[in-house]
Amino acid sequence: MPRSVNHVASKARRKKVLKLAKGYFGRRKNVWTVAKNAVEKGLQYAYRDRRNKKRSFRRLWIARINAGARLHGMNYSTLIHKLNQAGVEINRKVLADLAMNNPETFKAIVDSVK
Questions:
Q1: CA dihedral 42, 48, 51, 57 (to 10 degrees)
Q2: Within a domain: residue 3?
């Protein structure tokens, strides 16, 4: 009995990986073994950096809030502590946006907890 090889599935699998490698440089985009490794590594980075993006945005928000708070004679940690004590439940993303785009509203929030 002849050997049965499912070329349809294996070709589809290779095609899927090469499609993900579209846009890569050199042999990474069209040579199966190189593309497979590059795509696997790329997917690992994508998984890791979806989590790292959350960290870096939080750092950015904190820097913006700190800059806004210092304009009104207070630092970041004091502002957050006083907001928690006052029971103001506003997250860092919104606070950072207010500090950048609505300084008068941010000033009102800072003054309310001073």
A1: -70
A2: no
Look at the alpha carbons of 18, 19, 21, 25 in this order and tell me if their dihedral is positive or negative. positive
In a domain, 55, yes or no: yes
pTM above 0.85, yes or no: no
**Domain for residue 1, yes or no?**
no
Tokens (6 digits) for 93: 């993303």
Block mean pLDDT (10 aa), the chain, length 114? 89 96 96 97 98 98 98 96 95 97 96 92
29: amino acid identity, one letter: K
The backbone region for 82, taken as left when phi is positive above 0, alpha when psi lies in -120 to 50, beta otherwise, is alpha
Domain tally, the chain: 1
| Residue 4 included in any domain | no
Query: What's the one-letter identity of residue 77?
Result: S
Range of the domain at 84: 9-113
